[in-house]
Amino acid sequence: MSSVNAAHISAAAHLDAEHVKQERIDLNSIGEAEARKLMSDEHKALGYRPPPGSLASEAQAAAAKHPDASAGVDQATLARAALADATKIASGGNAGQLDLQNVGLDEARKLMSEEHRALGYRPPPGSLAATAQSEAAKHPDASTGADPATLAQAALEDAKRIEAERNGAQLNLTTITAPEARALQSEEHKTLGHRPPPGSAAAQAQSVVDSRAQVPVTKELAAELESQEHKARGHLPESGTIAPVAQSLADKNARDGGERKLVDVGL
User: Fold this and answer.
1) Mean pLDDT value of segment 216-220
2) pLDDT digit string (tens) for 41-71?
3) Residue 155 placed within a domain
4) Is 108 inside a domain boundary?
5) Is residue 97 part of a domain?
6) How many CB atoms within 10 Å of residue 183?
């Protein structure tokens, strides 16, 4: 009942593990210029000065001890680290869904700026930022009501998605199964040498599986899974994959009022 093969999961795990490693900044060797960059980027992402305990604040304190040192990381890595810390502070790691039908010009600019910073190049067509700009042109004065940190996290997550796609290792977390999530957790753990942190691909995958395990399968959920798998594969999902299994469970639940869940069949 697997949606993706083992090689795909392994590639995704290794790619995300590298992202996690890159976003770790060695404060024991950070210099003043790098600390200023972190403070600037995290300030922009939060919309206010990073508080004590933030990465930027700790970096400034550490850099004061060795201002001419260097952690040896590039500007894009510093930007990603600042964005990740800002979103953790402001939104607890939950970006939520942005309603692009109501996105305004200011929000679209923020998304473009943050995603550009995270990627290190202009977000391509199909990215969250590019789509937001297109939608905002229709209603420039609208607003999703999202705060700067939520926009920053959404941009960061989409940037990670784009990088994964460019490396051929994108996983669709909507349709990932419990066995796949366990395999991803195992592979990423091996690569990192420790448990994947919140926000990692493995942690996000497990969160999706855990959330899905709590709810009975409905026809709406089954239809969404089929739509996602169809998009990813370019054809209807094969028998035995998560979408057809979900459809079968949804049909049974509709017939007898049952509360069958994907976890009941190991997914």
Assistant:
1) 92
2) 888 888 888 887 788 888 898 899 999 988 8
3) no
4) no
5) no
6) 21
Residues 243 and 8: their CA atoms lie apart, in Å, by 19
Q: Which residues contact 92 (CB under 8 A, 6 or more apart)?
A: none
Residue 255: pLDDT band with limits 50, 70, 90: very high
**Local structure of residue 153 (DSSP, 8 states):** H
5-24 pLDDT, tens digit each: 666 677 677 667 666 665 56
Range of the domain at 238: 178-265
The answer to whether 164 touches 15, Cβ cutoff 8 Å, is: yes
The first and second tokens of residue 28, run together, are 């024991």
Q: Which amino acid is at 182?
A: R
Which residues, including other chains, have CB under 8 Å from residue 230's CB and lie 6 or more apart?
A: 236, 237, 243
User: Is 238 exposed, middle or buried, given 0-12, 13-18 or 19+ CB atoms closer than 10 A?
Assistant: exposed
Would you mind telling me the total number of residues written for the chain in this entry?
267
Q: What is the pTM of this model?
A: 0.48
Would you say 158 and 115 are in contact if contact means Cβ atoms under 8 Å apart? yes
Q: How many domains does the chain have?
A: 1
Specify if 259 maps to a domain.
Answer: yes
Q: Comparing C-alpha atoms, which of 25, 16, 18, 22 is closest to residue 206?
A: 16
